[in-house]
TrEMBL record:
It holds the Pfam family DUF4460. Residues 17-127 form the DUF4460 domain. It comes from Vidua chalybeata. Residues 180-482 form the DUF4461 domain. It comes from the Eukaryota. InterPro entries: DUF4460 (IPR028031), DUF4461 (IPR027989), TCAIM (IPR027986). This is TCAIM protein. The gene is Tcaim. GO terms for cellular component: mitochondrion.
């Protein structure tokens, strides 16, 4: 029996090798998928961009684990992506579409080899798998990828009883039957998070030191990051800025009181922050600092334009909310405001002066109908019909005031609950992702305070939409955890 078992194992290895992709082949095969979900293509849709960015991190971690020698641990991973499609209505898939027109796709990864994983991802997103044939993959694997468990050989149950190996089918069924709970997930992942956190502590101290020194030397209001880059990545960006300060101190005289944001492109943002593109070299950063006086002049013109729009709309305040709007440059936002102002000025809407004072609105270029956000501000499309806009604002003005008042109360409650939860569980930090609303954060913290969670002492806890341990040891849990 032992000889037969060894022969079966050798045969299994041969079959697996004939149907296994290399890491490079897997990346090539997934290119259509990466193109459909890459966060850089979702600039006008911050929520969808953030969801895809977080899911890609978890997917990449899953793919890396599959390539590790002797990898045996197996945990089904559920992912959600917003997929870009040219013709959404042509799809036969029944996933719901977001308000922005993207299809939300959710699927669970439970395969143990790269090929089956690649095919599962492509099939789940209704993407073609024909190009995988060019990678010399046996076509039989296409059928296997659609099955519940992707395995070349279906072993008899007695094999697992005799050898003591775990049956992947039973593991998958058990994982699907048992819903992940907060306590069980923390129990499984606390050790990994603590290990990563301890490893990151020296870098965290270095990051804080660099941030304080640069902020003091340049007299900056703040230093921020648009994305959730790792600590090492952030330190390298601050080192780059520090070297530029030493080489060209004269060009940094105009940054006093400003906020520097490390992001995908260089310039000045609609909120008036100095953007430094992480892919740009010092030469590009130098040009941005040299242009700051011109940016400040344009910013004054932009503020004047906002005041004029406010006067035409009865005193309603035009605002720009970084967390809810795409990251626009100052030039892009000025053009948006100017176009909207000209349209309003020509229509001459009969708003009574200051009748809407205290209300707020943001401009959006990817909508066609006005709406009222739960936080109290109006979301006005730049192409909105002026007559329809006037009727909508009048009809929703009272509700908007009530929402704004409730927003202020919720922000106070949220801050109190964050402080209480941080102290109660001895957390080093408690924060949320921008896509998590105040109402969701409040609900999450209230339920956390009802639990006994010794695992969280000294940890960094992020309230998100999924479970994950970040590369620097931060624990991510969904706001609606069970």
């Amino acid at each position: 029996y032992f000889v037969r078992l060894c022969l079966d194992k050798i045969l299994l290895q041969c079959i697996l090798q004939s149907r296994t992709l290399s890491g490079a082949d897997a990346i090539n095969a997934l290119r259509p998928f990466y193109f459909a979900v890459h966060p850089d293509f979702f600039g006008q849709h911050p929520k969808e961009r953030e969801v895809n960015e977080n899911s890609l991190k978890r997917l990449n971690g899953y793919l890396e684990n599959l390539q590790k020698p002797g990898f045996r641990s197996f945990k089904p991973t559920q992912l959600t992506f917003y997929v870009r499609e040219r013709e959404p209505n042509s799809s036969n898939v029944q996933e719901p579409f977001s308000a922005s027109g993207f299809r939300a796709v959710s699927f669970t990864l439970h395969t143990r080899d790269l090929l089956s994983t690649v095919l599962d991802i492509l099939n789940s997103c209704s993407l073609s798998t024909e190009h995988v044939q060019s990678l010399n993959v046996n076509s039989q694997s296409h059928k296997e990828a659609k099955s519940t468990v992707n395995r070349p050989i279906k072993w008899d149950k007695t094999y697992y009883s005799f050898t003591g190996f775990k049956d992947p089918e039973e593991e998958l069924e058990q994982a699907q039957r048992v819903e992940t709970t907060l306590l069980s997930w923390l129990d499984d992942n606390e050790a990994s998070a603590v290990k990563k956190l301890k490893k990151s502590l020296p870098l965290r101290k270095e990051l804080e030191r660099l941030k304080i020194e640069l902020s003091h030397e340049l007299q900056l209001s703040d230093i921020r990051w648009q994305r959730s880059w790792g600590i090492a990545h952030r330190c390298s960006q601050l080192h780059s800025l520090g070297r530029l300060v030493q080489q060209r101190p004269e060009i940094l005289e105009n940054v006093k009181g400003r906020t520097v944001v490390f992001t995908d492109r260089s310039g000045m943002s609609a909120a008036g922050h100095i953007m430094l593109g992480t892919m740009d070299v010092h030469h590009h950063w130098t040009k941005i600092f040299e242009r700051l006086p011109n940016y400040y002049k344009l910013q004054k013109r932009l503020l004047l334009l906002e005041d004029r729009i406010s006067q035409l709309l009865g005193g309603i305040q035009v605002i720009y909310i970084e967390e809810l709007q795409p990251l626009l440059t100052l030039e892009e936002y000025f053009e948006t405001l100017n176009s909207f102002y000209n349209k309003l000025h020509d229509s001459r809407l009969p708003f009574h002066p200051r009748s809407l004072r205290g209300l707020q609105m943001i401009l959006e270029s990817d909508r066609y109908a006005p709406s009222l956000h739960e936080l109290g501000h109006f979301m006005i499309p730049t192409v909105c019909d002026p007559a329809a806009l006037q009727w909508f604002i009048f009809a929703k003005a009272q509700e908007a005031r009530e929402n704004l008042k409730r927003k202020e109360e919720m922000m106070i409650t949220e801050k109190e609950l964050i402080n209480t939860s941080t102290e109660r569980f001895s957390l080093d930090r408690l924060y949320k992702e921008p896509s998590v609303s105040s109402a969701q954060m409040i609900d999450c913290c209230k339920r956390l305070l009802e639990e006994s969670l010794p695992y969280l002492q000294g940890m960094h806890l992020c309230i998100s939409h999924f479970y994950s341990v970040l590369q620097d040891g931060d624990l991510c849990i969904p706001w609606n955890w069970k």
